[in-house]
């Protein structure tokens, strides 16, 4: 598998040194273009007026909340099943970024719900399952540090991440399975997007920008995790020596 | 000027649109800054530990060499 070429931390560090500037520039460029198109160029919605502009942060943040969780669960599987040396590090590094995106999704959703639905929050399937996702991220981070032995914490947290993955398809299809105030998907549909290009383009630009942001911050955080692992190893050697 | 205040008013929904963008910016920048600070901290600690380890390693090698030299002189 191609991913195994990055299993070696030294090789990963070389890759991240090359990729990080590109990801950062791409993130800034996409988000800047998305902001201009989303806030200035794109039209107001015929029903929702200007509040529709909240979509350009809310929807990409929701996509990222699910994508980052998928990365986290994937890293956990590769750590538990194949003992991939970077699996735990990637999952661990991804969690706070995913929690951040989920929080953005919840906050901007409340700010969009108040003027459009008349309520900051409703306990329907979509909103509740995203709140559960946020708690899964927090629980994952708490569980990792809840054991004296860090490898036991990693294992318990990886298990939680994998079991919690069942929530990801529930979130995705919650708007189809249950009656809800939340509108159904309008971009990722079998019949193609039901949204006009003037709104779809800034939406996709923001999505791309958030993805590059995630990639860049993930590389930074994995580098920090590799350094932390080396610190632990050096301290063990020092104690023995 | 009028165009700007119309833009900021967001059709009367500025109080919802701008906090949404502000919260997103705050969280994204916050995660980035925290991640950079952590990386810097870990790399500093690692550099200090590694320097100490090589110093200790060199001292150990020197001590071993001296002990060996001493043993050789005695025999």
Could you please describe the fold and organization of this structure?
- The complex is a heterodimer of chains A (241) and B (75).
- Chain A is mainly alpha-helical and 241 residues long.
- Chain A has a single domain (20-187, 194-240), classed as Four Helix Bundle (Hemerythrin (Met), subunit A) (Up-down Bundle).
- Chain A is 76% helix and 0% strand.
- Chain A has helices at residues 9-41, 55-82, 87-117, 125-144, 150-164, 167-177, 197-240.
- In chain A, helix 1 (9-41) runs antiparallel to helix 7 and helix 2 runs antiparallel to helix 3 (87-117).
- Chain A starts with 8 loop residues before the first helix and ends with a helix.
- The mean pLDDT of chain A is 90.
- By secondary structure, chain B is mostly helical.
- Chain B has one domain (13-74).
- Helices cover 92% and strands 0% of the residues of chain B.
- Chain B is built from two helices and no strands.
- The radius of gyration of chain B is 31 Å and the shape is rod-shaped.
- The termini of chain B are far apart.
- The relative contact order of chain B is 0.05.
- The mean pLDDT of chain B is 85.
- Chains A and B meet through helix 2, helix 3 and helix 7 of A and helix 2 of B.
Question: How are the SSEs ordered, and which strands pair?
Answer:
The complex is a heterodimer of chains A (241) and B (75).
Chain A: H1 9-41, H2 55-82, H3 87-117, H4 125-144, H5 150-164, H6 167-177, H7 197-240
Chain B: H1 2-9, H2 14-74
Structure summarized in a few sentences:
The complex is a heterodimer of chains A (241) and B (75). By secondary structure, chain A is mainly α.
What number of structural domains do the residues of chain B give?
A: 1
Helix content of chain B: over 70%
What share of the residues of chain A does DSSP label as strand, in percent? under 5%
Q: How many whole angstroms does the radius of gyration of chain A measure?
A: 20 Å
- The number of domains of chain A: 1
- Low-confidence region ranges of chain A: none
Beta strand % of chain B: under 5%
Shape of chain B: rod-shaped
Oligomeric nature of the chains? heterodimer
What's the architecture of chain A, going by CATH? Answer: Up-down Bundle
**How many strands, which pairing sense, and closed or not: the largest β-sheet of chain B?**
none
Strand element count of chain A: 0
Average of per-residue pLDDT values of chain B: 85
Q: Radius of gyration of chain B in whole Å, from Cα?
A: 31 Å
Look at the helices and sheets of chain A and give the structural class: mainly alpha
Order of helices and strands of chain A: HHHHHHH
Number of helices of chain B: 2
């Amino acid at each position: 598998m191609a991913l195994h070429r990055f299993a070696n931390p030294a090789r990963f560090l070389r890759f991240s040194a090359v990729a990080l500037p590109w990801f950062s520039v791409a993130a800034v460029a996409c988000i800047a273009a998305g902001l201009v198109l989303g806030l200035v160029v794109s039209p107001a919605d015929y029903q929702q007026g200007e509040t529709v502009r909240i979509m350009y942060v809310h929807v990409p943040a929701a996509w990222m909340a699910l994508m980052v969780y998928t990365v986290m669960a994937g890293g956990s599987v590769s750590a538990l099943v194949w003992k991939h040396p970077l699996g735990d590090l990637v999952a661990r590094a991804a969690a706070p970024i995913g929690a951040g995106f989920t929080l953005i999704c919840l906050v901007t959703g409340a700010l969009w719900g108040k003027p459009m639905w008349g309520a900051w929050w409703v306990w329907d399937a979509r909103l509740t399952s995203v709140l559960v996702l946020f708690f899964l991220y927090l629980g994952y981070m708490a569980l990792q540090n809840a054991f004296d032995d860090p490898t036991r914490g990693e294992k318990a947290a990886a298990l939680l991440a994998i079991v919690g993955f069942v929530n990801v398809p529930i979130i995705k299809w919650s708007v189809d399975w249950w009656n809800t105030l939340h509108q159904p998907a309008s971009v990722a549909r079998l019949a193609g997007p039901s949204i006009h290009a003037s709104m779809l383009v800034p939406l996709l630009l923001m999505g791309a920008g958030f993805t590059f942001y995630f990639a860049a911050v993930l590389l930074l955080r994995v580098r920090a995790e590799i350094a932390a692992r080396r610190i632990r190893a050096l301290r063990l050697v020092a104690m023995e020596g | 000027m009028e165009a700007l205040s119309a833009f900021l008013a967001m059709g009367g929904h500025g109080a919802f649109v701008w906090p949404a963008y502000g919260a997103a910016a705050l969280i994204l920048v916050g995660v980035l800054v925290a991640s950079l600070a952590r990386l810097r901290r870990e790399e500093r600690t690692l550099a200090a530990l590694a320097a100490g380890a090589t110093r200790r390693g060199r001292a150990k090698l020197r001590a071993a060499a001296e002990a060996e030299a001493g043993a050789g002189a005695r025999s």
